[in-house]
């Protein structure tokens, strides 16, 4: 199926106009594309300009240069009402709408169609109910927003955006206030909605692990560098992550997809059962060791199971361990 571009920028420059008309450029020369049916995650360190980019794409602040096109039309050609029918926005701030019900909050998504004082028609109510069902929060429709958990509130805000029936959804750190389970649920929900409803979804996040696991594409943003764009796997294998996130003392491990402390220790070979080897490697990294391929003349660990770790020392001595804790004791004692 041919990819459909719904957002495109050409030579986009983002930033601020200071007093006296002087411009502060945060990032420039941005040529970006968002596709229908995909989730794109925007990653970058604090101060990279992620929120500035999102606000510019939303039209909340003007670009300093270049062009933005939505659905093939210049952003500047959109009226406020037309924009509301095209782009749904979910911001970082916690929802302070505790005095209304979940249903009432989601119904606000229909205002671009009904007007602020418009009456909800049968079709509007059906769309609201479908939006509540889509995010799995329909059973809370009559609850007050103040009664919900942070994760449930985020689902309600997404349902409100779905009720707008927009082809594009932009979210600024939607998982910022959520626990681990709620973050996974939210990302899985967004990915499912992008596929089922063919929406283009862009979200900024600091959650590197989840972005690598669940995003169709990534935008890697850092001041002074061209934006890195592509699938997570292509960016990892091309070395882009090391360039964007590798700092002094911190390295990106392409094997695990995680940022780790740089280690000066000699490598320790790890092989065997995949699950056991992964967690043994995790413990090695945490304790300052460097997991690698098995080679003669170095420490090697053969993981035959969770309770059978065979350690071979550089001199050929073999030791058996039943737990990772015992393994660490042997390493630290030598």
Description of the molecule:
The protein is an alpha/beta fold and 334 residues long. The chain has 2 domains: 37-55 and 80-245, 3-Layer(aba) Sandwich (Rossmann fold), CATH 3.40.50.300; 263-333, Rossmann fold (3-Layer(aba) Sandwich). It is 33% helix and 27% strand. The chain has helices at 50-58, 80-84, 102-107, 111-114, 122-134, 150-163, 180-196, 208-214, 232-237, 240-245, 274-286, 324-333; strands at residues 5-17, 23-30, 33-35, 38-43, 65-70, 73-74, 87-90, 168-172, 200-204, 217-220, 228-230, 250-253, 258-261, 267-272, 290-292, 300-305, 308-312, 318-321. It has a 6-stranded mixed sheet with strand order 7-8-9-4-10-11, sandwiched between helices. Strands 1, 2, 3, 5 and 6 form a 5-stranded antiparallel sheet that branches. Strands 15-14-16-17-18 form a 5-stranded mixed sheet, with helices on one face. A hairpin with a 2-residue loop joins β5 (65-70) and β6 (73-74). The longest helix is centred in the middle third of the chain and has 17 residues, at 180-196. The chain is globular and about 80 Å long. It starts with a strand and ends with a helix. The model has no long low-confidence stretch (mean pLDDT 88).
The gross shape turns out to be: globular
The appropriate CATH architecture of the largest domain is 3-Layer(aba) Sandwich
Rg over alpha carbons: 24 Å
- Main sheet overview: 6 strands, mixed
CATH domain fold name of the largest domain: Rossmann fold
| Count of folded domains | 2
What's the number of helices? 12
Mean pLDDT: 88
- Distance, first to last CA: 58 Å
Encode the helix/strand succession as letters.
EEEEHEEHEHHHHEHEHEEHHEEEHEEEEH
Helix content: 25-40%
Q: What structural class do the secondary elements suggest?
A: alpha/beta
Poorly predicted sequence stretches spanning 5 or more consecutive residues: none
Please state how the strands of the largest beta sheet are arranged side by side: 7-8-9-4-10-11
**Count of DSSP E strands?**
18
CATH class (first level) name of the largest domain: Alpha Beta
Question: How much beta, percentage-wise?
Answer: 25-35%
């Amino acid at each position: 199926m041919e990819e459909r571009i719904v957002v495109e920028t050409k030579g986009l420059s983002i930033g601020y106009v200071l007093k006296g008309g002087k411009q502060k450029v945060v990032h420039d020369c941005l040529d970006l594309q968002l596709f229908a049916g995909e989730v794109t995650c925007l990653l970058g360190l604090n101060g990279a300009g992620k929120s500035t980019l999102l606000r510019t794409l939303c039209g909340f602040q003007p670009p300093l240069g270049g062009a933005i096109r939505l659905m093939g039309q210049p952003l500047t050609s959109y009226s406020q009402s037309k924009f509301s029918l095209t782009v749904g926005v979910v911001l970082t701030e916690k929802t302070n709408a505790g005095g209304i019900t979940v249903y009432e909050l989601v119904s606000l998504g229909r205002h671009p169609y009904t007007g602020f004082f418009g009456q909800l028609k049968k079709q509007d109510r059906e769309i609201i109910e479908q939006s509540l069902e889509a995010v799995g929060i329909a059973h809370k429709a009559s609850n007050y927003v103040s009664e919900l958990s942070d994760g449930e509130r985020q689902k309600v805000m997404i349902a409100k955006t779905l009720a707008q029936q927009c082809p594009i959804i932009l979210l600024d750190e939607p998982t910022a206030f959520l626990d681990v389970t709620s973050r996974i649920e939210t990302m899985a929900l967004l990915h499912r909605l992008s596929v089922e409803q063919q929406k283009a979804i862009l979200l900024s996040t600091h959650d590197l692990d989840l972005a690598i696991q669940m995003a169709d594409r990534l935008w890697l943003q850092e001041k002074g560098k061209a934006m890195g764009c592509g699938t997570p796997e292509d960016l990892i294998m091309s070395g882009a992550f090391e360039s964007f996130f590798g700092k002094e003392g911190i390295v990106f491990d392409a094997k695990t997809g995680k940022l780790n402390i740089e280690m000066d220790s000699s490598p320790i070979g790890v092989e065997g059962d995949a699950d056991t080897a992964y967690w043994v490697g995790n413990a090695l990294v945490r304790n300052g060791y460097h997991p690698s391929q098995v080679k003669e003349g170095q420490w090697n660990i053969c993981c035959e199971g969770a309770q059978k770790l065979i350690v071979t020392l550089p001199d050929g001595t073999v030791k058996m361990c039943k737990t990772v804790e015992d393994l660490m004791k042997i390493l630290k004692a030598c």
